[in-house]
Design goal:
alpha/beta, five-stranded parallel β-sheet, two-stranded antiparallel sheet, 20 helices, globular
């Protein structure tokens, strides 16, 4: 049975039907309906598996997917957005970075360890969000204590003299007995006034602190320095997994603190981390993160075509590529991987692989690995019409991003429909004549187009900027028509 927090994460999937998942992806990615449909079904199946009877639940394996298509058509973005709104631990790794066991380099198990680290960060941020208000309140009080030590810590007042007898012994009113007022009450009153003045001062100081007027004031805080010895124990090129050993040694070493004099702004950052460490149960975070990895984790394995090759060919590189595939096989099939947080089972981690497959083809992968990726989806190359949609429809469209950058300088940037069409035409033309890098070509075209505008913006005033077809052709004509310049600039 999953923990309550993992159940909450799965409950979010209950509200996301495949059609709604595709609609969410449509907000950021243009086209590629087949790929969106495939990943939407795979994500929904995770929730369906949790609803299945226990006796068959563990037998239901994720349908891993291979996305086939040229660079810049949305493969990575589909997987990244899918994980983001599903609240699932996610990492992107490049298959070409791995080496066969016995070679110097990264081993395939490191991607599972990276996924665990990603899950730890994700769960901790959730816990920090839940305790943020309380943590900030505690930090404010600690900063006030540093700026104005509590009255209890102030030097003690001198001890009062012994109080005289309140009335003459045996005398009555008729005998003219002398009554003396005790000095204890005066001392108490004085202390009360002092405490009241302290509280008023603290209240005023707190308001200044909240308003940000004391950020440059210096205070002394205690910090736990990191030992350089552990950095020396992990030289560049150290084998994967050695960090588990050094982390264990670091935990065994006694914690030492030292005092640092820093500004309030820096002290706030140090103290908030300390308060989060007190408020958040690290063991609970780790247990929740490991469970989410095993239940909801997604690994995006990019450039898988780089480790595919025609089988039967002799030679080191081919043997090495096939060796990486064989190392990947048990991870994708489901195995136990040791991490510094404990053992992780990969049986129900969803693997989404991607590759252009210009030289090789999916059938060049070893048959065992092909069988672990039963869903294959081919993504289409982007057309000029797609570029127009990419620049206008998504919530994070490039035109909106550049408009926001220009707005920061107090100016406005607008694109006419014809201007957008001209940008799309030039991007498509350059992709045809040179390497086709898909939608990434729009970034290079837009950067070149608006280079002078962004450079001169602080000095040109607030006159609005309008991108028209004439402006696009004027700025990009020389580059788009010059084959040599285009090769290096666009």
């Amino acid at each position: 049975m999953s923990s309550p927090r993992t159940q909450q994460a799965l409950a979010r999937l209950a509200d996301l039907t495949p059609r709604q998942i595709v609609a969410e992806l449509d907000r950021y990615i243009v086209g590629q309906a087949d790929a969106k449909k495939a990943v939407a079904i795979a994500l929904r199946n995770r929730w369906r598996r949790q609803r299945a009877p226990e006796e068959i639940r563990d037998e239901i394996s994720p349908n891993n997917i291979i996305l086939i298509g040229p660079t810049g058509v949305g493969k990575t973005e589909i997987a990244r957005r899918l994980a983001k709104f599903a609240g699932a631990p996610f990492i992107k790794v490049e298959a070409s970075k791995f080496t066969e066991v016995g070679y110097v380099g990264r081993d395939v198990e490191s991607m599972v360890r990276d996924l665990v680290e990603s899950a730890i960060d994700m769960v901790r941020k959730e816990r920090e969000s839940e305790t943020e208000d309380l943590a900030h309140e505690k930090v404010t009080e600690r900063l006030l204590d540093l700026l104005l030590p509590p009255a209890a810590n102030a030097p003690a007042a001198p001890a009062p003299a012994p109080a005289p007898v309140s009335a003459t012994a045996g005398a009555d009113a008729g005998d003219g007995g002398v009554f003396v007022v005790s000095s204890a009450g005066a001392v108490t009153h004085e202390r009360s006034l002092e405490q009241e003045r302290y509280q008023r001062t603290r209240s005023k100081l707190k308001q200044l602190l909240v308003d940000g007027q004391l950020e440059q004031r210096e205070v002394e805080v205690e910090v736990t320095p990191t030992s350089p010895m552990f950095d020396m124990m992990m030289p560049q090129g150290a084998p994967d997994g050695i960090e588990n050993f050094t982390s264990m040694l670091q935990d065994m070493m006694p914690k030492r603190t030292k005092k640092r004099t820093v500004k309030v702004s820096e002290a706030r950052r140090i103290l908030i981390d300390q308060e989060f460490d007190k408020l958040i149960d690290a063991e609970d975070v780790t247990a929740d993160a490991l469970e989410r990895v095993e239940t909801l984790g997604i690994i995006f394995l990019d450039e898988i075509d780089k480790i595919a090759g025609e089988r039967g060919h002799a030679g080191g590189p081919d043997v090495s590529r096939e060796g990486v595939q064989r190392d990947l096989l048990p991870i994708v099939e489901g195995s136990n991987v040791q991490t510094k947080y404990g053992m992780v089972k990969t049986d129900h981690v969803l693997f989404i692989a991607a590759g252009a497959f210009h030289v090789s083809k999916p059938s060049d992968l070893i048959p065992e690995l092909q069988g672990r990726f039963p869903i294959r989806v081919e993504l289409k190359s982007l057309t000029e019409a797609d570029f127009v949609r990419i620049m206008t429809e998504p919530e994070n469209a490039l035109t909106k991003q550049y408009a926001a950058l220009v707005q920061a300088e107090g100016c406005s940037l607008t694109f006419t429909p014809d201007g957008i069409a001209e940008i799309a035409r030039i991007a498509g033309l350059v992709n045809e004549r040179m390497e086709n890098i898909g939608a990434r070509r729009l970034h290079t075209v837009m950067t070149t187009l608006l280079e002078d505008v962004l450079y001169e913006l602080p000095d040109r005033g607030t006159a609005p900027v309008e991108v028209t077809p004439e402006l696009v052709r004027e700025r990009l004509k020389a580059i788009s028509e010059d084959e040599d310049l285009r090769r290096y600039i666009l």
